[in-house]
Amino acid sequence: MSLFGAASGFGTGGASMFGSAAADNHNPMKDIEVTSSPDDSIGCLSFSPPALPGNFLIAGSWANDVRCWEVQDSGQTIPKAQQMHTGPVLDVCWSDDGSKVFTASCDKTAKMWDLNSNQAIQIAQEGVAYREVAVLCVEASPPSLNACHLSDTTVVEFPHDAPVKTIHWIKAPNYSCVMTGSWDKTLKFWDTRSSNPMMVLQLPERCYCADMIYPMAVVATAERGLIVYQLENQPSEFRRIESPLKHQHRCVAIFKDKQNKPTGFALGSIEGRVAIHYINPPNPAKDNFTFKCHRSNGTNTSAPQDIYAVNGIAFHPVHGTLATVGSDGRFSFWDKDARTKLKTSEQLDQPISACCFNHNGNIFAYASSYDWSKHRRKQTR
Fold first, then answer.
1. Is the peptide bond before 215 cis (omega within 30 degrees of 0)?
2. Which 8-state DSSP code applies to residue 51?
3. Transmembrane ranges (predicted)?
């Protein structure tokens, strides 16, 4: 465990502060930038649940670290603590009570970070409508010094035989567990008190992305696989779905109906397209649809287009509108029911690699950092 601004070198270097003059377009909308941002590309973001007073933001990066900030009502961000993996961090999530953070990494481990003690415990290892004025910009750039810490911490580490791509906390009436999806073609469910999984489900291919809103989970795999799971009583496969997209899956997010129950999902691909898919629609041919996004000329097909990957999808927790972010360096807001675009941001000088809303939808966070879409041609700052 290390603290923001420790003598190890974390927290030193140039600062990129809100409102500072800039000659480039790394933050053209002058959104609030998080202090002490990671030193490498950011792969995942997650806000704290409603049970935790205030707003805390977690980010995992290719610098092998997970960082936590407190986001104040003024927009100021206060670095709180940091944990390390030995490989890039691909996914993060919170427990329902906000006391723990779960992390998934390329080092083939998943960890449970107890925020009360600030310790991380391995739980999986090999062989064993938005508010415009409250937008956060998380940049992979040299961090500024702003030290603040939690009390000393426990990290529980959970076994996978390949990188762990996704991690989700499941809180059911009769059980609680962590769900991990891996490139070893398994979906595992863990009791956090044990290093042995409660259940292992085989996937047809490597897990590329997943989402979970009890009692439903969706996993998208390599070779355009799509599997829906039901989580009541115990997890089990509910249905396999033929992918509505023709190219590799990149991100997936579940949406709810007016009764606040999960009813379908949005699926994004590397081909600048999103599919809206209902699980049990009255009229599948009419209700399920796809739309183009993150393209250089919008929907104009008469001119050549640059087509970019959809890196992330997030649904507004109150209004049900959705945000998409892409390799084109833009985020857009959409109304899936009216099938219209609400707004597109100005273009940043780097891809937008991840996004999320806070629990009441007042804050939208996005990460501006290289997403490997052009191989090793990376921008550094």
1. yes
2. T
3. none
State the DSSP code for 295: B
Joined tokens for residue 56:
């805390």
pTM equals 0.86
Number of Cβ within 10 Å of residue 41's Cβ equals 22
Nearest in space to 337 (alpha carbons), one of 325, 351, 353, 319:
319
Express each pLDDT in 338-370 by its tens digit.
999 999 999 999 999 999 999 999 999 999 999
DSSP-assigned letters across all residues of 344-373: EPPPPSS-EEEEEE-TTSS-EEEEES--ST
pLDDT, tens digit (0-9, with 9 covering 90-100), for 292-341: 999 987 556 677 889 999 999 999 999 999 999 999 999 999 999 999 99
Q: Which helix (H) or strand (E) holds 286?
A: helix 284-287
Cα→Cα distances 45→41, 72, 73, 177, Å:
12, 17, 19, 21
In 3D space, the residue among 358, 362, 363, 323 whose CA is nearest the CA of residue 98 turns out to be 358
Which three-class secondary structure state does DSSP give residue 205? coil
